[in-house]
Amino acid sequence: MRILVIEDEAPLREQLSQQLRAAGYAVDSAADGSSGQYMGEEYPIDLAVVDLGLPDRDGVGIIRYWRERGRRFPVLILTARGRWQDKVTGLDAGADDYLVKPFQIEELLARLKALLRRAEGWTRSVLECPPVALDTASQQVTVHGQPVELTAYEYRLLEYLMLHAGQVVSKTELSEHLYEEDADRDSNVLEVLVGRLRRKLDPQRTLNPIDTLRGRGYCFRLARSQG
Amino acid sequence: MGLRLRRFWRSILPSLQARLLTGAGVVLLAFLGLTGLSLEQGFRYSALEAVEQRLQAQVYMLLGTAEPEADGSRVRLPEVLPEARLSSPLSGLYAGVLDEQGEMIWQSRSLLGLVAPTPTTPPILGEPLFTSIKDAAGNDLFLLSLRVDWETAPEQYHRFTFWVAEEPAGFNEQLASYRRSLWGWLLGSGVLLLVAQSLILRWSLQPLRRAERQVAEIQAGRRSQLSGPFPRELEALADGLNGLLRQRQQHLERYRNALGDLAHSLKTPLAVLRGALNPAGPELPEVVREQVERMNRTVDYQLQRAAASGRDFLARPLPVAPLAGKVVDALAKVYHAKGLTIALELEPGLQFQGDEGDLMEILGNLADNACKWGRRRVSLRGHREGDCWRLEVQDDGPGIPPDQRSRILERGGRADSATAGHGIGLAVVRDLVEEAYGGSLEIGDAPGGGALIRVSLPLAG
Question: Does this complex have an ipTM over 0.85?
Fold first, then answer.
């Protein structure tokens, strides 16, 4: 999952990026409104965290700009003022949630996960495609109730595929959403990861949870148990 | 003493118009009264003079027709005198002649059956004396008498006193009718002048009334400045008021911006500090976290309180429904995952006299608390009640135990972690509602067991 952070205060921006990366997200960050607005429009991001008090551009204006151009990814606004007028204006412009500074990183992560799930139509924190279940809060994966140990990258890959369960996800999309803009992307790494994931989830090769569609990408084919 | 008098005047003369009219009325009354008195005096004087001349003419007529005896003991006058009233009894005009000893030697026939008055003898020979005497019955009479030395025979002089007296009935009648018409006219013109005066006043005070109307419109939010033209005397006042309005607006904006900047500059470092605490070691960070938390709550509380602008009588009354709708939409988005039903029931036409941000603050904090604690249903209701409007926000959560209610509303919002959600929001709303708008906030129980927050606010207008 790729997250855009627009925050003009360097220490907070760096701290946020670091903490989000530690939580397993790919992070793009912008120090000012105009480059942030550009990234949100051009990069394949899954969510944006926007500070409303930017020096050059109004955060609300940026959100409105994206929405007018059909960019539908969830947006979480950060506000220092905590005035309801700011919050309501931001949400009205197209943001999906807000946090008042200062906030706890756990709170931010919980909100981000909820927004990402919601964007793909999941309402609960556990993604269930029986017999596979992925708990986004504890980052635990189980098959038939048995825990499966995954590396951070394997988890991120599975989470992305399960969030988009039933949809075809291309390799380009996967690498764009799992890696940051300037990361070194190698599609062979993805194939190796998918292979390892298949073996861990389905050692007996009875479930076949991930389809490979030649030339098009991958599809998590187990059906969702909830809306 | 002076103050009491001033207060007295203010209480009986509350308006400029009343003052001016009363003042003009008093001056007019005094002027017309004095005019009337002096005119009456003048008329009376000239009427008296006319009476004197008439009587003098009668006396000379008597002198002309009288023929004294040579010994001076008698005077002969013709039976029929040129003045008919002297010959007809009780005519009101009487005459007589006295000899040297003051004995009546002739009296007119009009005195028939009456006791002749005793005339005053004029002190100077040949000079008529006009005076007023009482007759035997005590009635007033005008009297003119003249003492003459008459040569009845060569070198033989006799002294006679001729007198004519007239009852004042005619004179009084004349005076009374003059008085009637004089005061009638004066009264008429007084009324006319007062009417004219009040019309002039109304006309001159019109710009004031226009200014008053415009201020009322500014208050109702239909106008932002006074617009002339106003007379010179009001121009300065209107300009001053406009300047004040502009200044106030600018001041308010500057103040808001400064507060926002302050919040921003304090909160970002706090956010960094809080973030930095996360991965660090055990002992120290807990204390630091607590203090950061506390600083943050204090900053939050004070900033929200300070930014409340309060009841603004010059502000446009705000319709409540659109803003409440926005707040509910925003919260529906934020609490999407909870699957809450948020009901909004507002009586149509509800208005809020005050700052938009303040109303958002009240609605946002109350609704947010309800959403935070509610399980399935949250409702916002607003309706009029007398000269207030009442906002009721209700949830179906755990409710607020009675023993915690006063602590939650405590000044400074010192809410602990158990009530953090309800704490600061409710304290801020309480302060805003009670201190800035003169309303009230109470915490109660919702029928289903959740919390019910009731806010009363003064109606717009």
Answer: no
